[in-house]
Ligand-binding protein SH3
Amino acid sequence: MNKALQKIAMVDDHNMLRAGLATVLNTFEGFEVVLEANNGREFIDKLQTHPHPDIILLDIHMPVMNGYETAEWIKKNLPTAKILVITMLDSDLAIIKMLNFGVKGFVFKDSHPDQLRKALIQLRDKGICLDEFYASRYNPETDSYEALPPPTPPQLSEKEVEFLKLVSTELTYREIAEEMGVSPRTVDSYRDTLFKKLHVISRVGLVLFAVRNGIVMM
């Protein structure tokens, strides 16, 4: 049975990159670009005269209305749309902030078109696409962005679960320590222990593990 055509909106202020990417996207079977915008404000305005998208490809740094503001608006006003961030950004807190605004996936701007196509298919079929970012933070010994098999969740203590929930917010490590009623050094110990136990190499790795294993819902 053929799947319904997925309508795509692109929100990115880099005109040449957006135009080239739109051409590539329109070659993917089952996907069609129906709206392009330079920023979030233009995207919202164009929704008055364009079909509402199923998937929104969103940049973070844009003038007038940036990716954070746009993602927050989409979460409130287009709750069924899935946001895929296309970025070169590699800031843990920025990625976590976007996850909390309802973003369902991330793809690097220098990814191969096949990886983008796979990401779109996964987003369409599963509703979430975190494999590329998860792989890049889960296995430090490979440069491959192939999806890794879901790890068998290890036994976690109540404090470790609490820490994972708090680390998935925008709180700093110092603020997490205050929330847990422990010292910053103890929080560092939780972090380093979970890095080893979960085989991740960054804060985002911890968050993606928590999301994939149902510890937090975003």
About this structure: The radius of gyration is 18 Å.
